[in-house]
Each structure stands twice: as C-alpha cells, then as structure tokens.
Amino acid sequence: MSTRLHNGKMWTKLFFTALSLLSLSSKTFSQTTQTTTAFQGTSAENLAAESPTLDKATLDNVIQYALKHQPLIQQSVIDQRVVENTIKSKLADWYPQINFNYNLQHNFAVQTSIIGGNPVKLGVDNTSAAQFSLTQSIFNRDLLLANRSQNDVRQQASQTITNNKIAVAANVAKAFYAVLSTKQQISVAEGDIIRLKKSLKDAKSNYDAGTADKIDYKRVTITLNNTMATKASNEELLKARLQALKSLMGYPVDKPLEITYEPTQMENEIALDTTQKVEVQNRIEYQQLQTLKRLREADLNYSKWAYLPSVSLNGAYNLNFLNNSFGDLYTRNYPNSFANLTLALPIFQGGKRKINTNTAEWQIKRLNLDMVNLKNSVNNEYQQALATYKSNLTVFLSQKENMELAKEVYDLVQMQYRSGIKTYLEVITAETDLRSARINYYNTLYLLLSSKIDVQKSLGQLNY
To answer: Rounded to the nearest 5°, which phi and psi values hold at 111?
Structure first.
C-alpha cells in the first residue's frame, strides 16, 4: 500500500513537472515567433531600402526594372514556388511513410474483471510502448491525379506570371509616355518663357523709347504670366506622374528617376502593321483557359475514378514494456510485429460519383463558353484598339504638319513685326499657335505610342 502511494505521488509530481515544462515551452515558442516575425519585418524593410536605382531610365530599362521589382510580379513568383512545393508535397505521398510513436502510462487502478467467479487484474501498474510503423501507398486516385496534373499546375502558375508581366509592362509603358508628355510640355514652356522674356525686354525698350505704346508691353506680360503658370502646373503634374510611374515599377519613392528618351527615335517607332489578323491562341488569357480546361478534365477523370480501389502496404514493429515496478519497467520487452496489405474498394457511395462526374462535366461546358466569350472579347478589343490607333495616327500626322506650319508662320510674322509690317498682337497670336501646335504634337505622339501598345496587347504580341 505504501509503495502504491509512493508511486502515485511520484507520478503526480511527474505530471505537474511535465505541465510546467509544456507551459514554458509554449511561452518560449511564442517569444521565438514574435522575434522571428520582427526579424522578417526588418529584413523586408532593409530589402526595400536597398532597391537599386536606374542611372539611365529608358523605356526598356524601366520595363525591365518593373518586371524584376514590381511587388505583383514578386508575389506571382512566390506563388509559383508555393505551387511547386505543394506539388512536391502531394507527390511525396508516393514514398514510404515511416513514423515512430512512444507511450508511457501509469495505471492508478488496474482494471479488474471476473473470470470464473474470481476477480482478476487485467494488466500491470506501468506500461510503455514504442512503435516503428511503415505505410506504403501502392495505388489511390488522389496520387494518380497529383501525378497526371502536375505539369498543368506548374504551367498555370507560370502563365499567371506571364499575364501579370504583360499587364505591368503595358501600364509602365503608358505611365512612361505620360511622364514624357508632361516633361515635353514643360520643355516647350521653358523655351517660350525665354523667348517671351526677350520679347518683353524689347517691348519695354520700345515703350521707354516712345516708339510703341504700352499695349504690346502689357500683352507680353500677360502671355508670360500665363506661360509661367502653365509651366508651374505641369511641374506639379510631373511629380504626381513620376510617383505613379515609380509605384508601377516598384521603384523607391524617395530616389530620383531621370527619364531618358529620344523624341526622334520614338517617332520612328509609331509604325504598325494594321492588316494583321487576330489569333486568339496568342493571347495569354486564352492559353490560361486551355490549361484550366485540362485541369478540369483531370477533375472529371478523378470523379470517374471513384470506383477504383485504394491499395496500401502497412507494417509495424512494437516494443512493449510491462511491469508493476516503475524502476524495473524497461528491464524486459514483449515485442510484436506485423505487416498487412490493405485494399479498400468503394461499393456504394449514395450516387456521389455520378453527381461529382456530372458537376465536372458542366464545369467543362461552362469553360468552353468562357473560351468562346474570350474570342469575341478579343476581336472587339482589337477592333477598338486598332480604331483608336488609326485615329491617333491621323491626328498625329496632322499635328506634325501644323507644328511645322506654325513654326514657319511665327518666324515670318516675327520678321515682319521687326520690319514694322505686322502688329505685336499678330506676333502673340502666332506664338500661341506655335506653342499649342508643339504641345499637341507631343501629346498626340505619346497617345499614339500608347494606343500602339493596346493594339500589340490585343494581338498577344507583348511577351515577357
């Protein structure tokens, strides 16, 4: 009796000691998790701070930078790695699964049973067991599905990255052209301001000399003020558009970004073959639907395979230790081992197989309609983009000619004004026409290039 009481106290002490250790382990794990999270956050901030800058921000460099540093692209790459690990995790079930289990138990009151009218204890005070087990899946439909669909799942993740890259590249290019448009307007305004300041100086000199009244002087002042106000407004707009471009690129917001461009080269890039036909197979969206259809067909086969059996091989080796004395518990082992082959054959599942198969078939039919709808949308998108491009091209050619004519008119009026033939009002009018023509020329140039991107995207010609 004293021995049993001593053992009971010992087991109670062991129980509370284990409980305390478990509580301490939980607190330690919590602190470790918090430390790890904080460390990861710091690392992310350091990475963001260490993002490189561009010395020469041409359109190609800006797009390539965005494809590498834009968070959406980086997330897509991470998702692809997650998918790859998920595939490996599914396929790992084909390999043997080896496990170890350990058990230690103290019976405060051993179960008693009546055998032949006599009470008999069934067991001992202390038991311990260790088991090494092995399970090998030979066949089941889950593993078959994972093995057959792994390439399509990988391709789906890769196509998602491609789709995101195309969208990012198109948006970055348009934002780049918007920045150029604003910069060019500022450049035009700066040239006008220099010229107007010179005109203002001449008008002031003529007024002071008494050869002209103050109307010319006042008109130049008004035009100069308006031009300087427009320039200041465009400079603020440029800051906003630069930040928008940086955001699309994943570029550090506090770092400078000096845009480099060649207007002549860009003008040479406006050409586009407008006789091309739409090939919907070239669109990444259609390719994604094709991949998804193959995955849906795999799901359909999976539903049809519901009648297939599952076969597995199992085995275990058990070490059993039994003793009424805790100190002598591990002095003797009563081992046992086994191996078995398990075959599970579904006989009746309440019609689930037929229902799931029917659902999978309807999903494929719906996906086929998605593909038809995409074909129609792509054709409509192409026609809209092509019409916009042709319209912008017509306007651009007109504005280019207008700019050349406005320059000739301005030079002629300026020369006639100095000869006393024209009034200064006509100079102001010619100068305003020239400024408007220049701004319209550059605006239409960048609109034309942006619309060209839309046409190329609709044709599936943007590949990254």
So the answer is: -60, 140
